[in-house]
Design brief:
The chain has 201 residues and is an alpha/beta fold. It folds into two domains: 113 residues; 63 residues, no CATH class. It has a four-stranded parallel beta sheet with strand order 2-1-3-4, with helices on both faces. β1, α1 and β2 form a beta-alpha-beta unit. The radius of gyration is 18 Å and the shape is globular. The relative contact order is 0.18.
């Protein structure tokens, strides 16, 4: 029987995978590992953007037991708080919530209070995020965005979060830039925990 050429291929030496929703989260994970002086590739850790929380069940089929990478791949990941139910349904046989407190973390999945961008903005503070925008030549664009009628009355942290998400390229780039502006001890707990769970530090 011929093999499906579109089927995912195992990665030699892979021992773990960090599942993230998209490429901006992937950029943040890779930047956090560098900040922690951890070599994901050398440790056999894949970082896999799965294309959104609704694809989580498919990602488990690919990376979990019986998937393309075998039965021994250790899984970790980041979960937006609004996507906990979808993640639990996939992980815990259709349950809408954790079967016990800490079940998601025990399984290697760590919840961002809103999403990862929000975690990073809170870790840095609005002033430091704007300094990063300034360093990257985006502060004037942000000031224009702030004065748009739809956003002028929002808290600055919400304005920053929305601005970073206005284009895919910007969101991906700042996934790394914001992490790079942190000290290692400032990395948000869910991000640090996902990296360390995967690499078993």
């Amino acid at each position: 029987m011929s093999q499906d050429p579109t089927a995912p291929k195992p990665v030699p030496g892979a021992v773990a995978a960090i599942l993230v929703e998209g490429r901006s989260d992937e950029a943040a994970v890779r930047a956090a590992a560098r900040l922690l002086d951890l070599d994901l590739e050398a440790a056999g850790v894949l970082v896999a953007p799965i294309g959104g929380a609704m694809a989580f069940r498919r990602a488990l089929a690919e990376y979990g037991p019986g998937g393309a990478h075998g039965d021994g791949l250790r899984l970790a990941g980041l979960v937006d708080v609004g996507e906990v139910r979808h993640t639990c349904r996939a992980l815990f046989d259709g349950l809408d919530d954790e079967p016990y407190d800490g079940a998601l973390a025990h399984a290697g999945f760590f919840v961002c209070k809103r999403d990862l961008e929000d975690e990073l903005i809170r870790a840095l503070g609005a002033g430091r995020v704007q300094a990063v925008l300034d360093d990257r030549g985006d502060l004037d664009r942000f000031r224009t965005f702030q004065h748009q009628p739809a956003h002028r009355d929002e808290p600055v942290t919400d304005q920053l979060r929305r601005f970073l998400g206005t284009t895919a390229g910007r969101k991906i780039a700042y996934g790394a830039h914001l992490v790079e502006a942190l000290a290692p001890g400032e990395i948000p707990t869910p991000l640090r925990s996902a990296v360390e769970h995967a690499i078993q530090r």
